[in-house]
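Me: I'm a chemist; would you kindly supply a protein sequence with its structure tokens?

Assistant:
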Amino acid sequence: MRNYLNSRASDLKQGGIRAFFDRAKSIENPINLGIGEPDLSTPKPIIDEAYSAMLQGKTHYTQNAGDESVRRSIASYLRTFKADYDPNGEIIITCGGMGAVSMALLCTVSSEDEVIVQDPQWLNYKSQIKFCGGTPVCVPVYEKNRFSLHAADIEKCITEKTKILMINSPNNPTGAVLNKEELEAIAKLAIKHDLLVISDEVYCELLFDGLKHQTIASTPGMKERTIIINSMSKTFAMTGWRLGFAAGPKDIIAKMTILQENLSACAPSPAQFAAKFALDTMCGVDKMRDLYQRRRDIIVDGLNKIPGVTCMRPCGSFYVFPNISSFGMSSMDFATGLLQQ
């Protein structure tokens, strides 16, 4: 029997995080530090809002781009970061932030296009870029620079094939946060080389020590060349609700909307109305952020007391990125040893 898979599907590989998660199933009572989701439940008022929406009959298809009232709430939320997007044409509600990323790439990446991503970075960026026919180009970031992505390092990787720059701040997995000066330098570079920027901002509410989120889309000249990706998953502990959104140029959002029509019709409607309530009230966010900051301090202080381990104190997200280089082992070997022993 012939192989019915196409070359794109044949090249898909399971990510290392999920592979390790599956390996841990064979261990009795492991402590799960592997999957990027809150261990907290969705705040009850958000759940109640979804339940109320269902009782009111809001269980049908919405517009492909999402319910207009929900898009208006998203637009209002984005304005708090000085990013002004029209809910009618510049915003789409998606099946999770992952759906927003994948559709943005599917609508913009052509064969042999190069997409710049930092390294280390969330693994799925690379696999999605490759699936779209593009080539991921990695820009390394370093602990000595607090894992910040610098414009000078990006520019070294730009070629005539470079089309897109992906940034993620606060960052998964390093916890690094790009400051205003760094964002402005990256913005100048994007304008100079006529690059589209896909800005993954799903951890934008999980900033510590009084920091406030800044989006590159608010920098002059960047709104028309930036796609903001965001999600309810991390901010409101709604990972299983599969509700995210993208905001960007009208022509790209229009094609993403048609693509969503063909892939999933629309995001789940009860989840959309729960998201509207969540964004309008920012229900539970301050309490969750304070809890994460206390946990961050406990685990970073603890890691730095272990002989041979050092760990930078992250400014955002809910990840720590410890340095285990003194042991002379690969990260996979080290993690496997921890799991088994």
